[in-house]
User: Which sequence fits this backbone?
């Protein structure tokens, strides 16, 4: 079996009696910024993406407490495209458990009828495959803690879910969809499902700037934009025009993943760039990630 570059470098270092730390840094620098996975099986797609970023164990260590934030906040059928594909969520949960996570919790702040959201979007049934995974539906005042946003321009303080603040790893798994007020709802927008007063973002602040500000305090270690299906119009709640791109956009930096994910479908019936979506542009200007996708190292994978 031929040696991979990874094993060659590691073996050379070991023979020479050198520390592996510089080698690990070199290998990390060679990893892509974005994994663009195509396929039809969400579990295979997730696994292919994780392999391409160097394995889930680069992100989740044994004993970690992991929080998953899908979009499961609407009591709509899966084919509406308003929520994350349940099998995508389950695949990520399985990977975290296999990596040795001591606890995996799905966190969501549902819209509308709380008791029906998980059932109608398909997640409740899908989670029977991973009974170890817990679900926390936010809403009570004690679920949140006030956090200052020192670099915030519109929003200076926000109440964030305590579970997120205490997690070792946060994995953001948004659905790919259009949004009538923010143009799209992807990774940065999905973080609003982790704060107490979402109404304030809509009524007291510039919404796009506040979403970008939130990026200073909610920083997922991995973002997986689920475009196995995509809602192109009438988001976030639908129903609207949907397509099935059969894609995942995956990366460590949520701002960069969002910028790239715009290329996966024609949201709002046109091809968007980061300049067309103010909160993504604001996040890029704030130094929260590269939004010029021409500068990103992208690896395309077929699952």
Assistant:
């Amino acid at each position: 079996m031929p040696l991979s570059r990874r094993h060659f470098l590691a073996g050379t270092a070991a023979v020479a009696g050198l520390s592996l730390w510089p080698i690990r840094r070199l290998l990390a620098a060679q990893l892509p910024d974005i994994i663009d996975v195509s396929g039809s099986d969400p579990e295979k797609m997730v696994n292919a993406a994780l392999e391409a970023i160097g394995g889930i164990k680069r992100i989740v260590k044994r004993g970690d407490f992991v929080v998953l934030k899908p979009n499961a906040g609407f009591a709509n059928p899966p084919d509406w495209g308003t929520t994350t594909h349940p099998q995508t969520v389950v695949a990520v949960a399985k990977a975290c458990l296999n990596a040795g996570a001591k606890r995996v919790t799905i966190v969501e702040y549902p819209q509308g009828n709380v008791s029906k959201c998980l059932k109608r979007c398909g997640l409740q049934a899908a989670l029977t495959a991973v009974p170890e995974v817990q679900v926390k539906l936010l809403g009570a005042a004690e679920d949140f803690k006030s956090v200052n946003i020192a670099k915030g321009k519109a929003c200076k303080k926000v109440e964030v879910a305590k579970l997120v603040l205490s997690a070792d790893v946060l994995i953001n798994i948004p659905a790919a969809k259009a949004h009538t007020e923010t143009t799209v709802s992807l990774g940065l927008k999905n973080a609003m499902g982790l704060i107490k007063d979402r109404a304030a973002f809509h009524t007291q602040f510039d919404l796009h700037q506040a979403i970008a500000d939130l990026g200073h305090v909610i920083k997922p270690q991995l973002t997986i934009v689920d475009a196995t299906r995509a809602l192109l119009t009438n988001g976030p709640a639908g129903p609207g025009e949907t397509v099935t791109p059969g894609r995942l956009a995956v990366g460590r930096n949520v701002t960069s993943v969002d910028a790239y994910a715009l290329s996966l479908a024609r949201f709002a019936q046109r091809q968007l760039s980061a300049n067309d979506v103010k909160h993504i542009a604001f996040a890029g200007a704030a130094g929260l990630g590269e939004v010029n996708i021409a500068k990103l190292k992208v690896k395309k994978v077929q699952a």
About this structure: The mean pLDDT is 92.
